[in-house]
Amino acid sequence: MRIDGRTRVCGLMGYPVEHTLSPLIHNMLAEDLGHHLLYVPFSVEPDRVGEAVKGARALNLMGLNVTVPHKSAVIPWLVEVDELAEKIGAVNTLVRCGDGYKGYNTDMTGLQSAMRTDGIELSGESVVVLGAGGAARAVAFLCAHAGAREVWLLNRTPERAVQIAREVNDAFGRDCVHGLALAAHEEIPKGQYLAVQGTSVGLYPHTEEVVIREEGFYEKIHTGYDLIYRPGDTRFMQLVRAHGGKAYNGLKMLAYQAVHAYELWNGVKVDEAETNRIIQILREETNVI
Ligand code: NAP
Fold first, then answer.
1. Each residue of 167-208: pLDDT tens digit?
2. Largest Cα–Cα separation, the chain
3. N vs C: which end of the chain shows fewer Cβ within 10 Å?
4. Which residues are the active-site residues?
5. Helix, strand, coil % (nearest 5) of the chain?
């Protein structure tokens, strides 16, 4: 791409940013869609988040993605926050707005879109969420927002799961989320559940690890959605399939969160063919089958 005086700049602020796939996705989208846009990573130290947001606005950056560890810390520096992102308490996309930026959580809208392409709707669904870190917390909020019937949130440190359940139930005014210890999975009533694997267990290179080993758990799971995309076929996914369920990895979520951010920045709709091209490139890049 030719960079000239009209080139608009977007980027990613995180710490670290060295392993991000976002520049690959966004620069490819810009090239394919003929937008004069450049996307670059910015390493921002934790105590410089406010300075970074102000500096970005001063430099007229059209938008930013925000990644670990800044997704919550950036919120006080924004002029506006989208309703779902505000409830979750984390943003991953900033869109230039007035004298600053408005924050969105396209991780979650991206996950929802990714699930839809696999025929999964959260509305009315009974869901098990494994983990209570940043990603699992956001998934619990998304489930309540999207009208899930019930959510069983299981975590190694049960206090975190209980705390998130309380926050989600308070935010939505209904008792739909139950926080439990991982080891208490047998307390989940008999039935068929969508399970979202939101822990870091099984992430490359620890590919043989899985957060719940007991086979009985997997008999209750009709679909397993692992947020991990490296490896593309986790032990969790294998166990779900071995018990007759369908299983998906987190690669499409990664693609859709980027597509949604790109759409917000550029006021365009990225079509399915282009999104599928991004997914295919990411598969090759991450060696996902
Ligand atoms: P995080 O905030 O660090 O949370 C990690 C979670 O994993 C916590 O619930 C933690 O439990 C649990 N955990 C860690 N080691 C464990 C172990 N040995 N046994 C049981 N539980 C363990 O991480 P995060 O940001 O939420 O990310 C979680 C996963 O989601 C990562 O694999 C990440 O790659 C993936 N992710 C994917 C996408 C995507 O676009 N596909 C986006 C975001 C995240 P404790 O609370 O007990 O420590």
1. 999 999 999 999 999 999 999 999 999 999 999 999 999 999
2. 62
3. C
4. 71
5. 40, 20, 35
